[in-house]
Amino acid sequence: MTDTPETASSDPGTVAFYDANADAYAACSETEQGLVHLALFAADLPSGARILDFGAGDGWASGWLANEGFAVVAYDASEGLLELAAAKPGVETQCATFEELEAYGEYDAVWASFSLLHAPRTALPGHLSRIATALVPGGRLFVGLKAGTGEKRDSLGRFYAYFSPEEVIEALGDAGFDILRATSDEGQGMTGATETFLYFHARLAE
Fold first, then answer.
1. Please, which contacts does 163-168 make with residues 24 or more away whose CB atoms are closer than 8 Å?
2. Which helix (H) or strand (E) holds 20?
3. Inter-residue contact 34 to 64 (CB < 8 Å)
4. 84-125 pLDDT per residue, tens
5. Does pTM surpass 0.90?
6. Residue 85 belongs to what H/E stretch?
7. Strands 50-54 and 91-95
8. Dihedral of the CA atoms 117, 119, 124, 129 (nearest 10)?
9. Residue 137 and residue 206 in contact, taking contact as beta carbons nearer than 8 Å
10. Are 116 and 177 in contact (CB under 8 A)?
């Protein structure tokens, strides 16, 4: 039986792993494909846009966006990772779980790169709804997830939920988003296992 987090917002084991291994994670968090999608995401945004990096990790994307002149909030449940994010110039941080997001029309864009996969599959619709509420009409969203079925812990003890592209597209549509781009490729994370990564760029309907 899958060891599912006690709440839909955070998993203590996953957060503990990132707190204890923040530096090791930061060493491999920024990838070539991640930068490609971050540049595509940023190209759609107005100058000085306010961005929520939702599940920011060590803040590699937050730092890049801040350097481009955007106002960025790095949001994560791991204090260890946010210490690294806070050290990046121009980056504001907030330590909280996904379910604690209570912003209303506050952001022009949300970057959720391989973060929502650490919550149960059943939590995805609620998290996308909170993101939609946090965005201005027409706001942009990027979501990165991993392809597959079900839920499990990886060899490092982190909880993961897996999705098909069709499931994510349906969930985004139900939350009020129009899909701008949906792509995938294969790569390796911290465990060294080859996995299929899913990338979605979307726009909140006005």
1. 163/117, 163/121, 163/124, 163/198, 165/198, 168/124, 168/143, 168/198, 168/200
2. helix 12-20
3. no
4. 999 999 999 999 999 999 999 999 999 999 999 999 999 999
5. yes
6. helix 79-86
7. unpaired
8. -110
9. yes
10. no
Q: Which residues pair with 175 in a beta bridge?
A: none
Exposed, middle or buried by CB within 10 Å (0-12, 13-18, 19+), for 124? buried
- Cα–Cα distance for residue pair 151/67, rounded to 1 Å: 36
Q: Which residue has the tokens 């000085």?
A: 48
The residue written with tokens 């946090």 in the block is 134
Q: The tokens of 128 are what?
A: 């996308």
Which is it for strands 91-95 and 135-146: parallel, antiparallel or unpaired?
Answer: unpaired
What CA–CA distance (Å, rounded) separates 193 from 110?
Answer: 28
